[in-house]
Design brief:
single chain; 219 residues; alpha/beta; Rossmann fold; 11 helices; 4 strands; 56% helix; globular
């Protein structure tokens, strides 16, 4: 049961710590760390705190820029609203930003899947994550120090973290690869799975020579 006092908050550092704990539990000494949207911000936080555990990065539809004062106020207000009203109203309002507007009707299965994920998320958990993201740090310095292979993916029509944010990350990380997915908004992995997976698998294939012979599971 969630506490009835205070304002529960789940920081990106909490998610990063949990990810490190999962790797430790699985006995993995390194991994390709991938994240989309808030997951991308978690991946950047993980890179900042545990760079020795990162063999490569995949950052999709995300931004390294710290939250603005206006953004902090919005996220905290939205957190209060979700606690009071639940998830359904908010999900209906943002579905045509999560996926491109024409995909809401043109890809009904995708729209139903995204709406289902949002509607069934516990409002308390969503609110705690929103409050945590309101406190997110600026990760540009973290990205400038990255020395592992990195793939940056973005939906060409993403209204939340547009292409210029992806280009910023690409410019910050030496040797990074940038893939813009046409006809997709904030969730290109769902809107254009074949294109997204092609970019991801092509990137992962480039890692094989570096990993072969160095990872205990690869011989």
């Amino acid at each position: 049961m969630w506490p009835t006092f205070g304002t529960p908050q789940t920081l990106l550092s909490d998610f990063a710590r949990d990810t490190a704990a999962v790797l430790d539990h699985l006995g993995l000494w390194q991994a390709v760390i991938a994240g989309l949207s808030m997951g991308g911000q978690t991946a950047m936080e993980f890179q900042c705190r545990y760079p020795e555990l990162v063999s490569a990065l995949v950052l999709a539809d995300t931004t390294p820029i710290a939250e603005t004062d206006e953004g902090k106020a919005f996220r905290n207000s939205l957190a209060d609203r979700l606690i009071a009203e639940g998830m359904a109203g908010y999900a209906a309002e943002v579905i045509d930003k999560m996926i491109a507007p024409h995909h809401v009707t043109g890809q009904p299965d995708v729209a139903a899947h995204v709406l289902g994920m949002m509607r069934t998320t516990a409002p308390q958990g969503a609110a705690a994550a929103l409050r945590g993201r309101a406190e997110r740090p600026d990760d540009r310095q973290t990205l400038a120090a990255v020395r592992v292979p990195t793939l940056i993916v973005v939906g060409a029509e993403d209204p939340y973290t547009p292409v210029d944010q992806a280009k910023l990350m690409h410019d910050l990380i030496a040797g990074a690869t940038l893939a813009a997915i046409d006809d997709a908004a904030h969730l290109p992995n769902l809107e254009q799975p074949a294109r997204f997976n092609t970019a991801l698998l092509r990137f992962l294939d480039t890692l094989r020579p570096a990993l072969t012979g160095t990872h205990p599971l690869l011989g």
